[in-house]
Design goal:
The complex is a heterodimer of chains A (787) and B (167).
Chain A (H helix, E strand, L loop, with lengths): L14 H5 L15 E7 L5 E7 L1 H4 L4 E6 H6 L31 E2 L5 E7 L2 H8 L3 E6 L25 E8 L1 H9 L3 E9 L11 E7 L4 E6 L4 H10 L9 E4 L15 H13 L3 E4 L2 H7 L6 E9 L5 E13 L26 E10 L13 H19 L3 H8 L6 E2 L5 E2 L4 H11 L5 H10 L3 E10 L7 H6 L8 E7 L5 E5 L8 H13 L6 E4 L17 H28 L6 E4 L2 E4 L5 E3 H10 L13 E6 L8 E10 L6 E11 L6 H21 L30 E5 L16 H18 L10 H11 L1 H4 L1
Parallel strand pairs in A: 1-12, 10-11, 14-15, 20-21, 27-28
Antiparallel strand pairs in A: 1-5, 2-4, 2-6, 3-5, 7-15, 8-13, 9-10, 9-12, 13-14, 16-17, 18-26, 19-20, 19-25, 22-23, 23-24, 26-27
Chain B lengths: L1 E7 L2 E7 L5 H8 L18 E4 L2 E4 L12 E3 L13 H8 L9 H15 L5 H7 L11 H15 L11
Parallel strand pairs in B: 1-5
Antiparallel strand pairs in B: 1-2, 3-4, 3-5
Helix pairs in contact in B: 2-5, 3-5
The chains are: A alpha+beta (787), B alpha+beta (167).
Chain lengths: 787, 167
Amino acid sequence: MSATGIGASVRRQEDQRFITGKGRYTADIERPKQAFACFVRSPHAHARIKGIDTRAAAALPGVLAVLTGAELAADKIGNLVCGWMIHSKDGSPMKMAPHPALARDKACHVGDPVAVVVAETLAQAKDAAEKVRCDFKVLAAVVDPARAQAKEAPQIHDVAPSNTIYRWQLGDAKAVDAAFKSATHVTRLDIINNRLVPNAIEPRAAIGEYDSGTDSFTLWNTSQNPHVARLVISAFVGLAPENKLRVIAPDVGGGFGSKIFIYPEEVVTLWASKRVGRPVKWVADRSEAFLCDAHGRDHVTVAEMAFGDGGKILALRARTIANLGAYMSTFSSSVPTYLYATLLSGQYEIPAIYCEVDAVYTNTLPVDAYRGAGRPEAAFVVERLVEVGARELGMDPAELRGRNFIKSFPHQTPVIMNYDAGDYLAVLDKALQVADAKGFEARKRQSAERGKLRGLGFSTYIEACGLAPSQAVGSLGCGVGLWESAEVRVNPTGSVEVLTGCHAHGQGHETTFAQVVADRLGIPIDKVSVVHGDTEKVQFGMGTYGSRSGAVGISALVKALDKVESKAKKVAAQMLEAAEADIQLKDGKFTIAGTDKSLDWGEVTLNAYVAHKFSGQELEPGLKEGAFYDPVNFTFPAGCHICEVEVDPQTGESEVVAWTAVDDFGTVINPMIVEGQVHGGIAQGIGQALFEHAVYDREGQLVTGSMMDYCLPRADNLPSFKVAMTVTPSPSNPLGIKGCGEAGAIAAPAAVINALTDAIGTEALTMPATPQSVWAALQTVSPSVAA
Amino acid sequence: MVAVAMTVNGKPVTGDIDPRTLLVQFLREELRLTGTHVGCDTSQCGACVVHVNGKAVKSCTIFSWQVDGADVTTIEGLASPSGPLHPMQEAFREHHGLQCGYCTPGMIMTAVDMVNRKGHELDEQTIRHELEGNLCRCTGYHNIVKAIAAGARAMGQGAGAGQHAAE
């Protein structure tokens, strides 16, 4: 392994600008003559819009325009759409309600934009927005997914009776019923997967700019996938054809899924820029972000696991109601279906699985993918069932897991997925060792001496990453292909630019992609630049989410490098007057096997461009190759996380005192970066388990609408993490990469709750397990302890 | 409008500004020093931390006129432009204490202030407690804690020669 090649913890190339304040985020960009947008948002969760009076606002100094849904409709600006078609079990298509960028007839959640003010300064725009008078007739609201389908619930969209978007199913209900009949034990759990607000630290922002000279638009935005944004805004919103719309996502300050989606503010800033003839800039306040960024999770589930002799898992059954909020966000439909139920086999050999999912509208923010997206919900169901099952059966939770692990690969689950590689026992064994599980009882006694309850919880999670084989997801309703592209441009002097359709917003692609190139071509890593996030530079790409950049994006890069190497060898063969098949490229040198003749990388690249040593008719000059890589399968990262908690029975306060993560991500390009991804994922998972909760009151007001009310994990809420890895390379892509970005967030919630319930001795605990809810749970089992 | 004058990163600056202009707005919009970030509107996240007369201040929570006459240092002025990085900047890179980079300027400015107040030998508990005003959503804080401990030690070994005089 070289110091900068695959497997080396190379320090990040991108860090120089971030640690010196030279990062360039959307809010940092200033366009000549830019104006500022401020949105007028509905203060009501559900309200008929009887009229909007913009006159007082429009008369204020500096105001350039006050625009509403009426103008949007007059200009024939199309609706936002959800790009994944799900069919109900009766064969009917999902009920997608219209989602205009500015609500025209009805506001459907608090924060639904109803008008926009564009002014010379942000202060003027904000002042004027306060003067827009919107006449609302307030309607009854429904916010709880479990109540959305009730007869008495208010109807939100005409197209969706009973607020039901789809009633979907996966698996074999009859086989599951039969398995449950033969079970010796059934474990049943009611599970609420709490609603979360992603809260990337950079709030979303957008700058729309129209150029009348070329009749074209540019959008700077905080996007994880600028090409998808361009596609949707062109093909569905209809603002401009793709060749007349450039989308640039510069440095982006975290995404975690919430910046995948195409949002109203992006459409409106573009549209308004043409209306006012000036660039229009919008930057969300944090309080605004709580009201306009898609939320995550929000499932209500009843789950059952059937066990046979010896703790053998016979079947799993789950019924879930998924809250998709007021409108169907870009990929919302796929999250509680194909990203959720397909993972309900976990790491286990389960002969029969059946899952029903009802997706419902409520008067809340749209809910879409958030770090893990469906897979954390699935892992929580499976890992809670297994842990509770073990406790009910009086078995060791690690042993029960080990007995039921899938042990040979490939393995076809009853829920679509075909696991390609893994060694779950090896991961579990290593985790038990790293966590010193044997020493737990002694630590528990020590905690007890200090008046604390100590618990240990496992999560042996699996995820499907490397999203995704295009044909496969197409057959399941996805409206796009999920391949990735890469282009390798070699310059005459031998330096290289990699253009990728992936987008980095913290993942370190400028380093890892460069490592792969340096490793392959044998050139210094600082001779490699990585370009991403601009539709005018990168031809097309699907962006970054679903832990796909390594498994899919780097695979595309490898494919392009294959072509570059092949072409460079042709040039070298001409220069060395040798057969192409005899040329080898190693450590930046071209050699002829069995001779001492060699050429440096730079000599060959220069000759590829000057084209003096070969016929330009027989061999094309230049050295630039591109590739589209479509994965053959998902990848299946898996691991074992072990959490230890201490609970103070007097107060219900809990502390995560130890964390072990052993993960199998296949081949790792940069261990330092991968470990960092694991840390961040665990922190978000612990956040879900202990702190974070988007709470609506019955009227649909978001009670946790600021960082003062929504509890994000802070440094003193978290431990340091013990992180280790095992490696079974994925056979499904050239380097054997599986993906790592979401693992921690998928694994952690179940590990925390399993540890807490172990500590307090009752399973009746929902997320977030706040001190109050832990204390209340303790009252039900040992009031004397908790008094 | 109100006239303000202050020293920012060693250079005298003046402005004629709306009295409601926050320090972070003055820095970002008037001086175009965009390294100082805004991550919230309730003083929770710390992405906007700068130093005013050598002490960490959340620049989103103070009006520009309140720091009239003060000496302000932002992330751009922590190391001299031509010299080496500040040891705390170097430590964040070395220990992978950043991912998306958005909270990073505030984290580094908070960390330097922490060292100024607490010294060069900072244990994990102290660092975690002192970070109560700074949010990071990417790193889980693990590597930030390591970076600050290492940066604090490096500052004690005289590696901070390049830093701005006000520090």
